[in-house]
Structure formats: structure tokens, C-alpha cells
Write a structure and sequence with these properties.
Helix content is 48%, strand content 9%. It is of the alpha/beta class. The chain has 3 domains: 232 residues, Tetratricopeptide repeat domain (Serine Threonine Protein Phosphatase 5, Tetratricopeptide repeat); 84 residues, Rossmann fold (3-Layer(aba) Sandwich), CATH 3.40.50; 145 residues, Glycogen Phosphorylase B (Rossmann fold, 3-Layer(aba) Sandwich), CATH 3.40.50.2000. The protein has a 6-stranded parallel beta sheet, sandwiched between helices. A 4-stranded parallel beta sheet has the order 3-2-1-4.
Length: 505
């Protein structure tokens, strides 16, 4: 009888009747608790509806019934991964591979999980193993392509996704990733074609819309770019808008209302888009800003900001809006027409000034998707630090500050005194110049109207545009773009610094 039920359950699965299939598999395992296949399929269906605890119990029964079926251990790993139990999930995938060393699903799932936790080289190894055993395993190819994009092996990544298109010509995700790879390679025409084709094939593809937005913004099409950028709010893992106690600000009149403006991504984004807060206050409206505590003090002193709260603690507001949606409310300008738009604090006392003071920031958050291309090593700054009659100060925080221990560069380490962005701002106010890669300190210096030189990769983040040495974002900023390798960038910066520090200056 169970044999017939298996046939019924499989028929229900083919027809998309998942609830009926799950009910049938429940009957199967009730009639025969030793039916490993029934437990396995039941677990898969429970996992599909995010009933992870139930799925874990079911797959445990499947393993108990048949511990030598690699599929069971792969499913076990998938469930544990969903529960964020990375160590146990890895062990489950490894167990599957001891049973079936050529199991592509085990390699693919393990590689995907390692990618998610930032173990990119390990992920690459596992996914290449999947394709070694099964060259046409599309999920492995797609995931390997994503890993290679992160590792900046762009040509191979794009080739992989083109190979996927040979089997699935309309695959929107492959097209999106081709677009991302082509963008990073500087082939913007091909990137545009890929994104637009993806949207023709799948008009609701969120990643296609968001990446297309980045391309439009990079090219200076702010109106269409910011409109497309609203799709970011639909991304899986983005903030759940249902958490808010009121509606999002769309077309409602906000006169006399309280508006919650919330920071949604990194510190640099918050510092860039907070410039719009005074415009909201002029409506007039009461403005609450929800952001990382490290920038509370700075934001609280900004004109038009009535209250600053920690993330997820905003209350007592009528409407809410993410900071990066403000350009759509106030035209496509860059917001503030005045600088500084952050109130400079009292400058840090570095003692009697005898020489020019220059601050250096060489690395950003290592978790950033493009950190490998934007961040540099402190040792690469050596040509800059040979310019005479300058005192160099490290405003670097985080793991990259450890490079100070292994350098012969003469630089004053300020990390221990930089507990908040207000501390960093105070230090910057005592400096003559900040030299930074694309990270939050560059935005901070620009918002404070302190001279800042920004070092950018050839194809930078969308906000910096292409080619120009200046930006409408910050009037005090000068941009040095990679053209012929990073050595050339630092050589040009060193030459500019000699001119900047000359007595005539």
C-alpha cells in the first residue's frame, strides 16, 4: 500500500500540490516508521515551508533508517545550514561525501554555505570538485561563478555564466551575474545588455533591478537609477518592513508629522544620505534618525534632527523611510547645498603643529562585497609616506590596523582613541588632509568639508561615477582613479602630495 502512496505523493509533487504530498508522506511514515524514503521526502517538504525543527526530526529518522544514503546527509546539512549551525552542517555534508565521494549536491551545498560565511577559497575548491565530477551541474556552475566574482576572477566567472546560458538561454540569474562581471570589467555596454535581457525574461527579478540601478547611477542617470534602486527593499534578507509600527512615507503630507529616517546599509551610506535630513525638517516635520550608535553623536548635532535612536528602537513616529530613498523625495540632486552638513567637533589636540598633518585610511569593512578590490595594504602607501615634512596619522580601525605592527612606515596610530565617529571627526579636524580608500572615513571627511583624497578602483562603486576627479557629493574631495594599476595611483598621489605640502601652498 505504501508503494501506491509513494506514487500518489510523487504525482502531487509534479503537480505542485505540496500540502497533499506532505500529508501523504506523513501517512507513509505512520504506516511504516522504517520507510527511509518517506522520512526523506517529508523532511524536504517541511524544509520547503521553513518548518526546520520538524524537518530536522524527519531527516533524523531517515538517517536512522538508512545511514548510508548520501542524500539523507545532504538534506541534514541543508536543514542545519538553515538553522545557522554551520559547523554541524559542514560535518553533515562531509559525511555525505565519505559515503558518495562524487556527490555533486553535497559539494555544491557545502560550497554555497562556505561562500555565505566568507570562506571563499574553500567554497571555490568544493564547487570545482562538484563540476569535476559533474561538468553540467548548473547550480554548482552558477555558485562557482558567484564565488569567482567575489574573488575578482572576473573573466572566468563571466565565461561560466555564459556556459550556463548555453543550456538555459533565458536564465535571468545567469544574465544578472554576467552583467555584474562585465560591470566590474568596465564593459558597461555588455553589462547593460545583460541586465536588460534579464528583466525582459524575468521582469520581477530583484537582483536584476538592483544591479541595473547601480549601473544607471554609475553612469549618472540619477532619476532612473534611484527609482530602480527602490527594488533593494524587496531583497531577501533586507529589513522586514512589517517590523515598522507605521506605513512607509510615500505620497502622504508630512506637515506636522514625525518621520523616522532609518539607516539601511553601511556607515558610509548613512553619512552620505543623512544630508537630506534638514530638507525633511523644513516641511516642517519632526525627524527621528535610527542609525548605528557609533555615529549617534555626530547625527544628533545635525540641524533638523530632533532625536537619534539605536537600530530597531524607533518609536513614536507617523511614517518611516530609509535614508537611501530620500533622493526620490527631493529631486535627483545630491541633497545638501551647504558644507559642512555635519557639525565639526572640537579638534583633537595633537600638540604644537610643526609639520603638515595627513591622515591615512587604507582598508574598509572586510565583509563588504567589493572589499578585495577597494581596500589596500598599508605597505602600498609607502610612496606617499616618503614625502618629507609631513606627519602621518593612522585613522584606520578594525582588523587592518594590525598592519601597523609590521610596517617600517613612520605613522602615528590613533586607533585606541577612535571609539566613535565623533572621535574620528575630531581627529580629522586637526588634520590638513585625509587620504582614504572608499569607506566611511572618506564620507565623514567630505561631510565635514575637510580636504580628502579618495583612492578608487577603475570601476568604482556606483556613487562615484566615472572618470571625473571631483564629485558633487563633497566639494572638498579629490578623486584618484586606478588607470594603470595601483602603483600608478600611489605615484600620482605622492606627486600631488608634494605639491600640496609645498611652501607656496
Amino acid at each position: 500500500m505504501n508503494e501506491k502512496r509513494h506514487i500518489w505523493a510523487q504525482q502531487a509533487l509534479r503537480e505542485g500540490r505540496f500540502s497533499d504530498a506532505e500529508q501523504t508522506y506523513h501517512q507513509i511514515v505512520e504506516l511504516d516508521p522504517r520507510d527511509a524514503d518517506g522520512h526523506f521526502h517529508l523532511a524536504a517538504l517541511q524544509l520547503r515551508r521553513n518548518a526546520n525543527t520538524e524537518a530536522l526530526q524527519s531527516i533524523g529518522q531517515a538517517i536512522k533508517c538508512d545511514p548510508n544514503d548520501a542524500r539523507h546527509h545532504v538534506a541534514h546539512g541543508q536543514i542545519l545550514h538553515e538553522q545557522k549551525n554551520t559547523e554541524a552542517a559542514e560535518a553533515a555534508f562531509e559525511k555525505a561525501l565519505t559515503i558518495e565521494p562524487d556527490n555533486a549536491d553535497a559539494y555544491t551545498n557545502l560550497g554555497s554555505m562556505l561562500f555565505e560565511v566568507g570562506r571563499y577559497e574553500d567554497a571555490e575548491f568544493m564547487l570545482r570538485k562538484a563540476l569535476l565530477y559533474h561538468p553540467k551541474h548548473t547550480p554548482a556552475a552558477i555558485q562557482l561563478g558567484r564565488v569567482l566574482l567575489r574573488l575578482y576572477q572576473l573573466e572566468e566567472a563571466v565565461s561560466l555564466f555564459h556556459a550556463v546560458l548555453q543550456f538555459y538561454p533565458n536564465d535571468a540569474n545567469a544574465l544578472v551575474n554576467i552583467g555584474v562581471g562585465c560591470s566590474l570589467l568596465g564593459d558597461l555596454a555588455s553589462a547593460r545588455e545583460a541586465f536588460e535581457t534579464a528583466l525582459i525574461n524575468d521582469p520581477e527579478n530583484i537582483e536584476a533591478h538592483v544591479n541595473y540601478a547601480h549601473l544607471l547611477l554609475l553612469e549618472g542617470d540619477f532619476e532612473n537609477g534611484y527609482r530602480e534602486h527602490e527594488w533593494r527593499l524587496k531583497k531577501t534578507g533586507y529589513r522586514d518592513l512589517s517590523d515598522f509600527k507605521s506605513a512607509m512615507w510615500e505620497n502622504q503630507d508630512i506637515t506636522g508629522k514625525t518621520i523616522l529616517l532609518w539607516a539601511e546599509q553601511g556607515l558610509g551610506d548613512a553619512l552620505q544620505f543623512i544630508r537630506y535630513a534638514p530638507l525633511v525638517a523644513e516641511t516642517p516635520a519632526r525627524v527621528i534618525v535610527e542609525c548605528n550608535p557609533i555615529i549617534h553623536e555626530l547625527i544628533s548635532k545635525m540641524p533638523g534632527v530632533d532625536q537619534v535612536v539605536d537600530l530597531n528602537l524607533g518609536q513614536g513616529y507617523d511614517l518611516h523611510l530609509p535614508l537611501m530613498s530620500l533622493p526620490l523625495k527631493y529631486g535627483m540632486s545630491h541633497g545638501s547645498n551647504y558644507f559642512p552638513y555635519l557639525t565639526p567637533p572640537a579638534a583633537t589636540d595633537f600638540g604644537t603643529k610643526q609639520r603638515l598633518r595627513v591622515g591615512l585610511n587604507w582598508a574598509g569593512n572586510p565583509e563588504h562585497a567589493r572589499d578585495r578590490e577597494r581596500s589596500r595594504r598599508l605597505s602600498e602607501f609607502a610612496p606617499i609616506t616618503t614625502v618629507p615634512n609631513i606627519d602621518f596619522y593612522s585613522i584606520q580601525i578594525g582588523p587592518a590596523s594590525a598592519q601597523l605592527k609590521d610596517t617600517t612606515i613612520q605613522i602615528i596610530d590613533l586607533e585606541n582613541s577612535l571609539k566613535t565617529m565623533s572621535d574620528t571627526a575630531a581627529a580629522m579636524c586637526a588634520l590638513d588632509l585625509v587620504i582614504s580608500i572608499d569607506s566611511a572615513p572618506a564620507h565623514l571627511a567630505g561631510a565635514l568639508d575637510i580636504p580628502v583624497w579618495l583612492l578608487l578602483t577603475k570601476v568604482p562603486d556606483w556613487r562615484w561615477g566615472l572618470e571625473k576627479e571631483t564629485t558633487p557629493l563633497y566639494r572638498s574631495m579629490r578623486i584618484f582613479r586606478e588607470q594603470n594599476g595601483w602603483e600608478d595611483v600611489f605615484a600620482r598621489v605622492a606627486a600631488a602630495l608634494i605639491e600640496f605640502s609645498s611652501p607656496s601652498k
